[in-house]
Amino acid sequence: MRKKKSQPFRLLLRITHYALLITLLASCSSVQKGSLQDKTYAVASWYGPKFHGRPTSSGEIFNMYALTCAHKEYPFGTRLKVTNTENNHSVECIVNDRGPFVEDRDIDLSYAVAREIGVIGPGIARVLLEPQGRDNSYIHPVKFRISGKTGPFAIQVGSFTENINAIRLKTGLRLKYANVYIQETEVKGETYYRVRVGNYQDYNSALSVAEQLGQEGYPTILLKADVKI
Question: Up-side HSE of residue 22: CA atoms within 13 Å toward CB?
Answer without folding.
Answer: 6
